[in-house]
Each structure stands twice: as structure tokens, then as C-alpha cells.
Amino acid sequence: MNSPRIALIGCGAIAEAMYLPALAKVPGALDNTVLVDTNEARLAQLAAKFGAKHTATNYLECDVEGAIVATPHHLHHRISLDFLARGKHVLCEKPLTEQAHEARELCAQADASGVTLQVNLTRRLLPSYRKIKEMIDAGALGTLREIYYLDGEYFQWPTVSGFYFKKTSPAGVMLDRGAHGLDLICWWLGQAPEVVESQTDSFGGFEGTALLQLKCAACDIRVKLSWLQRMDNIFRIRGDKGTVQGKLNNWHNIDFIDPSGRTRGIRLNGESYEYTDFALKLVHNFIGVLRGSEQPLIPARSVLPSVELIEACYAHAARIDQPWYTAITQPHPEASGNAPASGAARPSAIRSALGAAGMNGGDPGRPSSPERRSAEVQAA
Questions:
Q1: Reading across the β-sheet that carries 253-257, which strands appear in turn?
Q2: Residue spans per domain, the chain
Q3: Which of 57, 111, 117, 151 is the most buried (most CB within 10 A)?
Q4: Among 79-93, 204-218, 345-359, whose mean pLDDT is lowest?
Q5: 204 pLDDT tier (thresholds 50, 70, 90)
Q6: Which tens digit of pLDDT belongs to each residue from 318-369?
Q7: What's the CATH fold of domain 124-271+310-314?
């Protein structure tokens, strides 16, 4: 059976690391896949590396049955909408959109066109997280009382375009790591929790750290996300009947602690997985959707609660207390004739290095309507 015609929009890091290796493992898939990017040198590089036969610089000219949208975040909405309006199925990289109204518009267009829209939120496919969902739904933990979630690593994603730190994409770690973690929490709960408190280190630029307090019925939720430090990267979910906990990157083992304090390890799937194996699962599913034999693994409508939660976290965001900036508000020593010793850092220089011109620079909060680029497709 011939593979459906697919456009892979955006030839950046995620395309190279996940989608193209997955497509290469599906017999005949790359023969019917068009790589699309405005960067012709990048197109030629990836086409040669993976043996793709078809390339294009304008996605609107692609005659395909479905599209994988793997562009910078701010382009997800427009490109996905264009394909959906033409009656094409879409698999969109996370985050689905930057704003909730855009996500709702995409879902409405998919329904109107009679096609599917799905999202790559890979953590929903991992054995440990699926087991937790199963336990919560079955009532094995009882009434949930607490969720604790830590996710922090130094930002090292090999972005090709550098879009993460460009002005047109003002959101930081909450839209990046939060798209995974907050989606898991919404998925586990079956709804979006309320925002009690949202704090970031942003001075109007890209937040590198976020501290969130959320609440859902009797469950108190604490989340810390960071691009600036490697944290323990753990989760804990406590209910009346027991607690389940584990490490974010250990997909095969979780611990269950009963109310008496006894711990029982739970081993999930003896099979070993690489992260790219889950990309293959998504691609196989997308091809099945295009053939009409499968339903999307992660439908976009199921992602709406987390998109709305992220937006609410930005709307409520206040600046984390940073007492080391108090020196900035003091008069400069030179103003009173007390020049600093040679080599001493000036408060204004500290602000310039750490805030105003860096990851955290500007005014707190996220612009309500991010600036839009032209319809050019850029590598992520």
C-alpha cells in the first residue's frame, strides 16, 4: 500500500531529530513526503541526509493529504489553519498555538472541514504517565490532594532558526516545558486547574523560571519549570488512598506508597524505548489517520485545557521576588562622589547583564497579541 502524501513543514531541529528519522523507518513514506522550508540550503541538507525526493519553499503549493507542522511556535496557527481549511489533516508540533483562541479556531476549522487535528505531546504516550492516568481514572489514589511537579534543565535545544529568543516569540519556559508538564496535569485531572499564583523571573522578555500554584477541587498543585538550572525532575501525586511518584525521564518505573508508608515499585513494559520511538508511533498513527484506519492518538480538543491553562498562567504572572536587584534602585555611587573601586560591578551593569537586555528584559507579563510574521516557513 502506498504511503499517503505528506508535507513536513519546517526543517529545523525537531524535524531532523524526530520526524524525519520516524518517516525514514516507514517503508515508502519519504518517497511521498515533501520537505518544506524557506531555507533552501537547509532543505538540500536534510533531503540528502534522509533521502527525501521532494522539496518545496512554499507550503501553499503542496498537493498533499496531510501536513506535519514543525515550524516555530508563532507559525503553528496560520499554517495549520491553511491546511485545515483546504480539507487536509494536520499533526502539529507542541505547543499547538501561542494563544487559546487560536487553538479553539483550529479545532472549529477541523470540525467544519471534516478532518483531524492532532498534537505531538509525546509524554502522554510514555508508559509511566499512562499508568498514572489509568490509576487516577480507576480511583486507585482516591481523592487527589497534592501534585508536585519539577522540570528543569539548562536550555540546550539545537534550534536552527533561533526563534526561541526572538521578539516575535515572547514566551519562554512555560510555553516550552510547560506545554508538556501542564498538559500532563490537565490530562491526569481531566480538566484544567485554576491558577492560584503564577510567578516568573521575566522583566518582559522570555521567562527562564516559572513557579506555579494551582488548585483543582481538593488538590493543591505546585509546579516549577526552568531553563536555567538542572532540577531533580520528579513528580508526586498524593491521594487519600496512596501516593505515586517517579522521575520525569524514567518512563518504566514508578513508586506507589500506600497510606501506611510502605513503598511498592511498579515496573512498566520490559521493552526499552528511545524517545524517537514515540515519534515513530505518532507518525504511524498519522499515516493511519490519513488512510482512514485510525483515530488521532492526541486529538487537539483534548489539548485545549492545557493551552488555556498556560494562557491563564501568563495572564496572572507576577515577578518572582529577586532581592539581588534592590541595588539597582539605589543612587549610583558616582552620583554622590563615591565611585566604585576598580573592577567593581555597577548596579546598572548588573541590570543590563541579567535583565534589561537579556532573557528577562523589559516589562513583566506577556503581550496579549504576539506580533505575526509573514507566511514564510522557517526552520525551528
A1: 263-267, 253-257, 242-247, 234-239, 144-152, 219-226, 209-216, 194-200, 317-319
A2: 6-122+275-298, 124-271+310-314, 327-356
A3: 117
A4: 345-359
A5: confident
A6: 999 888 776 555 555 554 455 444 444 333 333 333 333 334 443 333 333 3
A7: Dihydrodipicolinate Reductase; domain 2 (3.30.360)
Q: Which amino acid is at 183?
A: D
- What count of other Cβ atoms lies within 10 Å of the Cβ of residue 210? 29
Assigned C-alpha cell, 188: 491526569
